[in-house]
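Journal club side-thread
Mid-discussion, someone asked how the predicted structure for our own chain would compare to the paper's figures. Pasting it here so we can look after the session.
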Amino acid sequence: MAVRTASFLLFGLFVTFHTWGAWADMEVNMEDRVEVYKGDTAQITCMFTSSEGIGNTIIQWFYVTETGERQKIYYQDSMSQIVDRATRFTDRISVNGTGATGEVVLTIRDVQLADGREFICLIKNLTDDSKGSTQLKVFGTPDLPTIEGVQTGISVNEVSPSKIGTCEVKNGFPRPNITWYRNNTPLQSVPDEVEIVPSVTSESSGLFSVKSELNLKVVKEDKNDEFYCEVSYFVPGGTRMTETHRINISVFYPPTAVNVWVESPKGNIKEGDSIELHCEDNGNPPSSIISIKRFEENNSDGQSLDGEVLVLNNVTRRDSGVYQCTSIDSDTFQSISGNVSVFVHFLDAAVVIPQDTIVVAMGEEFKATCNALSSLKTQAEWLKDGEVVFKGHTLTVKDATFDKAGMYECVVTVPEIEEMKTSGSIFVNVKGPPEILKPDNTEIESYDTTVDLSCMVRGFPAPKIIWSTSDGQDLEMASEMMTEDGLQSRVSIQVTSDITASCNASNDHGTDALTFNIKTQGSGVIIAVIIICILLLAILGSVLYFLYKKGKICGRSGKQDLTKDKSNKDNIVVEMKSDNTEEAVLLGVNGEKQSPNEQ
């Protein structure tokens, strides 16, 4: 007996199965544990050997109750296979194998959590018996975990740790574990700083639900932290993990600095703009007691506005200065301030020297300067007739002529601010004798009785213009108008025959004249029309007489004398009268005279 026991113990050192047996010649080998999910099918294998063979073998299956007793659920011998009735496994088990191969398999369908217990396989023959056992482990996969953060803000002034959130995982078996993380770092309980409070609920289904609450003594740096939970749970053959989504918390803290800035306009500010100043402290939430005011050195009184925005409309250079924003903590009533400097750029009206109008002698040189007081660097351009003639603050014009006389405009701009612009002007008169601008044509042909003439004269002082004609017409009604090109004079002249008209201009420095030659075309046309009419009437009379002789008109008809002398045939006559005689002469078509009797 001692030898058999020693042999059995030596065998147990080399295998991972539980083996019980009273005799060394009967051995039963089984797995330590079988793991399955709830609802799956479990298979427990029992392998046995015997020195006497496996004939006449009795196979029995048992499970261990909660009180430690063995409950038989199956019996098999060479003649029968019996599943015990009225057990929790009666309708869910089956056994494969007759024992002839030395192996039987207990199959349990629809495994439940309560099925997790020890199962025993007992093998008997005529002389020996032996048994082995396997622990059945049942697992339930939990639901996905959830996390819920606090909706209200948490103040850094709280004395004790404040609730951050709650994690929960339901319906797991065995009991799942929850671990809190902050920014990928696991949290553990620290007195007065971190508190993790777990709780476990056993559901009626036998599954476990676990909840964990995190309490934390928050600081300002926690405002951007992310918190989440990791849940680990057992599965057949190992463990698995899953995570919740990440949450943030609102941390309330007092301000440590105040920021005040110019919201608009962006960049440089110029006179006439509207300025919008904004102010904000770095506390959370921002202070509700905040104001912006104009800060005067040695005098804190100035323009002030309660609130986060100050608007200044149509600003001038006098609005330049330092503006201060003050924030007061509503809990401690401590104040903190911030400043911003505002500078309003300006550009005064352009000043042109000499002013208004200058007089320059013909051929001389003249200069003019143009400047405008500004807070920024300026540049100037001189324009004449809309075109740039010079760039710079000082205009220099050499060898003055009438073409160089007129209005000069100076435009001063600020390159850094496109909208800043001002201008001034000067009018230049060039002193000299009159100069009449020659028109394209002074030879005029007219069919009308009235001709309109125009004369453009340059010169300074303004010339006096007198019109005259070759037939001595009174032309006192001429009209004059000053234009950019000079003095323009217009006159209307009565024309009955060819004449000449002269424009005479004079001033203190000399004279100039322009002559127009006017030719009338009216009398020659009338004579030509009369001659053409006489010729048309003569032709018409010849045609009528020809028709008369042929009997086509005046009622003549009938046969003509075909033997009539050819000289009398087809004669067409024209009656010609002169102013000196009343004698009518009839000419034949051959140019022969006809007597009155032959008419």
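Post-session note: Confidence is low (pLDDT under 50) at residues 1-24, 556-599.
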